[in-house]
Amino acid sequence: MVANRFVLLATLINTFLFNGALYSFIASNLDLTTLSGLSIAVSVFVIVFIVNLLFISLIIIITPILVKPFLILTAMINSFALYYMVTYQIILDKTMMGNIFNTRSSEAFELITPTLLLYLILIGIIPSWLIIKTRIKSINRGKIVTQLLIFMVLGIYFLYINSSSWLWIDKHSKLLGGKILPWSYIINTARYYSINLKSSDNQVLLPEGKFLNEKKTVIVLIIGETARAHNFHLYGYPRNTNPLLETAGVLTFKNTSSCTTYTTGSLACMLSYNSREKNAEPLPSYLTRLGVDVVWRTNNWGEPPINVTDYQEASELRKNCIGEGCNFDEVLLSGLSQRIQSSNKPKILIVLHTKGSHGPSYYSRYPPQFEKFTPVCRYEEISKCTQQELINAYDNTILYTDYFLYKTIKILKKLKGIPVMLIYISDHGESLGEQGLYLHGTPYMFAPDFQKQIPFLIWMSNDFTKLKGIKNIPQDNQYSHSNIFHTIIGAFDIKTKIYNRNLDVLH
To answer: What residues make up the domain containing 453?
Structure first.
């Protein structure tokens, strides 16, 4: 096959075969029986065709030897991408690419299903085999350039005479851009790493601070995973998913929103004194530098680069943990009381980063005795489950979170004579099939409240409330991740010019 025909065939395959999610979105949001709707749909198709033709033509013109490997690699990746886009309605924008690159192998295995393998064979392996078997007989760069120019002129002319369609396309540009394969993940991967490289430069140190007292104070920050406020009984959910916390005397901050819909962005936000400062020293590093004993225990991942006294992963803690709970978030509580009591520093921050309610394997996030709501979804391929089965499994994770937090409070209550405060806040929420969406990571502008409205709870010991002179704390104001940094700075009585009293919930 001559090169220019190969380019045209590859362009058509990329345009038709790999963009089912894009065309499905268009069909769902346009009336294709009208001339206006049909004009917009054809305009999107023309854009996708021209973009594919341009890049494939440039590759074969510049480096012919790379065109087949490129098409094979993108076909394989496209098969995975299309499966997740169709199944979970995800959008491959910059934030979603960050989500993907911060997913560990153990979590990725949970997403492998028989249907995914079918996508891989039909959309990845078979097209790749056809590409391998196709022989490119001659490469006439002149013909390729001429073909490219002809189609580009025709395409641009068509888009020009249908300029009325641009208003709809512009309005949905972010969603459309995140659905065009393979360019959505190629371009947004580059965008993600360009920002990530900047953020990994030397962090800007925060200004010095000093403690206003040397009274021993312990703060435990528990970072939840994928917990949405909607499913907490404390927030009005009809199911009693918080039977223990309701008796624990926790403060429930009713109107709390996450900074983002993905873990890395939310953690960076809650640990920053100002979310607009992308490269500032995070809270754990700052407190460690000021002399606080900072312990970071994690059954998860996604935190920014931090310097702490002790960084302990669940796998390390599990070696000295006893009981069934050691296979779940309870492993983070192993030896916690002893670690606090053995510290010779007056200020102690313990961060527990939980696995929480991370999906889609909700059923695997809690011990069997917490399976109260049944039947539950036991498939990663959620199309095999009813929405209620999915919600049942998710609610069981919230029930286990309730137990985990209550157990932590019981441990802290035994620290007699020591002012203690516990803060629990989730990184983001979750979609459980509402509006056809699942999981999280939807661009914030388009994300439903289920992915943004999160639980934010505080428990304080009597010694802590006496030390701080706390009598009444409003719980109905608007709160967010931005409150965490300043609340902890205020709780430790640190005098620093970056402290914002208005963001300290204790004031």
So the answer is: 216-318+342-358+395-503
Cβ atoms of 162 and 70 within 8 Å: the answer is no
Locus of tokens 């989730």? 426
Backbone CA torsion sign across 246, 248, 254, 260? negative
How far is CA 466 from its chain centroid?
A: 38
Q: Which pTM was predicted?
A: 0.74
- pLDDT tens track of the chain, all 507 residues? 888 889 999 999 899 999 988 998 888 888 888 888 898 899 999 999 999 999 999 999 998 888 999 999 999 999 989 988 888 887 887 767 777 776 666 666 677 788 888 999 998 999 999 899 888 887 888 989 999 999 999 998 888 788 767 768 877 777 888 889 998 888 888 877 766 555 545 788 999 999 999 999 999 999 999 999 999 999 999 999 999 999 999 999 999 999 999 999 999 999 999 978 878 999 999 999 999 999 999 999 889 889 999 999 998 999 889 999 999 999 999 999 999 999 999 999 999 999 999 988 899 999 999 999 999 999 876 777 899 999 999 999 999 999 999 999 999 999 989 999 999 999 999 999 898 888 888 888 889 999 999 999 999 999 999 999 988 899 999 999 999 999 999 999 999 999 999 999 998
- Per the structure, the count of domains in the chain is 2
Instruction: Point out the domain boundary residue: 167, 199, 231.
Output: 199
Terminal Cα distance for the chain, rounded: 74
* Domain at 471, CATH number: 3.40.720.10
Of the candidates 199, 226, 251, which is a domain's last residue?
Answer: 199
Helices 3-17 and 126-133, interaxial angle, to 10°? Answer: 180
Q: Do both 272 and 412 map to the same domain?
A: yes
Helix, strand, or coil here: 214? coil
Calculate the dihedral angle through the C-alpha atoms of 114, 117, 118, 120, rounding to the nearest 10 degrees. 160
- Within a domain: 37: yes
- If DSSP codes are grouped into helix, strand and coil, which group holds residue 430? coil
331: in domain: no
Q: Residue 378 — φ and ψ, nearest 5°? A: -115, 25
Nearest to 99 by CA among 197, 5, 185: 185
d(CA 238, CA 261): 25
381 contacts 115 by C-beta, under 8 angstroms: yes
The token pair at 419 is 């002012």
Element (H, E) at 218: strand 217-224
